[in-house]
Amino acid sequence: MGRMKIERAKVYGFCPGVRRAVQMVEEHLEQEGPLATLGAIVHNAHVVEALERKGARVARTVSEVREPTVAITAHGAGQEIYEEIEKRGLKLVDTTCPIVKRAQEAARTLAEEGYTVLIYGEEAHPEVRGILSWTKGKGYATLSPEDLPELATRKLAIISQTTKGRTAFWQFVRDVLDRFQLSLDDVRIIDTTCPETGRRYEAAKELAERVEAIFVVGSRNSANTRKLADTCESTGVRTYFIESAEEIDPAWVAGLSRVGVTAGASTPDEVIDQVIEKLARLGGEEG
Ligand code: SF4
């Protein structure tokens, strides 16, 4: 029998926005020294600890910052945070993902043009709270149109949390129009969803359909890694959701000829590489 084939999903791991944010923080640490990040730069304890050792401390609020510099994460932040940073005279490393920035800009300009801005997203999510803040009180965030109050407006704009799926966003738009169309005469729809999240699920599914077992690598508290594992499971393939290479039990791959590996958007490259190395030691080869 030949060696077990190990195949990586076509897209996996850090998205370009998170990769850029980590890079910006690392560059600052190397060139200018310690800083505080407003919340974790990536939802992964491994990355956060590694950055902490190099001088990036996590602060929950601007008032907790003791360093001369503060970094806003890829999720972005509301207008009041920028004002507070300026008031305190802190230097800013703004790692807001350009796609999130676009959603914030849309929220700001639409609100200025007199639209009530509806955001399809989770109200408590930091990205959504940030986008909402740019509407200066002229916005709502929700996942379901039934939860909305009667809107005292004829001008409505609809945008999305970036990590929501396109199909779900457009369904939301239809539901909103079903509920409010008779009271509206000016509607703007801007699809601010990010294609990166969807690409990871599609690639995982495509791979899951071709292998005997698939390893989904990421933190157990990462919602998108959990969803990735669910996507794989839904194809019927044996799915192992693991945080690191150590968790792999050799019995899981005994006798298999093809396994797949994918990872959530917050999983760093080295953790994925360690999983591949472990599978190779258990008789596999990439290809
Ligand atoms: S908007 Fe897309 S690219 Fe940017 S941080 Fe979010 S998932 Fe990553």
Concise account of the structure shown:
By secondary structure, the chain is an alpha/beta fold.
Q: Could you walk me through the main structural features you see in this protein, from its secondary elements to its overall organization?
A:
The chain has 287 residues and is of the alpha/beta class. The chain folds into 3 domains: 4-13 and 196-286, 4-hydroxy-3-methylbut-2-enyl diphosphate reductase, catalytic domain (Cobalt-precorrin-4 Transmethylase, domain 1), CATH 3.40.1010.20; 16-96, Rossmann fold, CATH 3.40.50; 99-193, Cobalt-precorrin-4 Transmethylase, domain 1. Helix content is 38%, strand content 21%. The chain is built from 9 helices and 13 strands. The strands form 3 sheets. The protein has a 5-stranded parallel β-sheet with strand order 11-10-12-1-13, sandwiched between helices. The chain has a 4-stranded parallel β-sheet with strand order 3-2-4-5. Strands 7-6-8-9 form a 4-stranded parallel β-sheet. Helix 4 (98-112) runs parallel beside helix 5 (126-133) and helix 7 packs parallel to helix 8. The radius of gyration is 22 Å and the shape is flat. The protein starts with a strand and ends with a strand. The mean pLDDT is 95. Bound molecules: iron/sulfur cluster. Iron/sulfur cluster is lined by residues 15-18, 74, 97, 99-100, 162-163, 194, 196-197, 265.
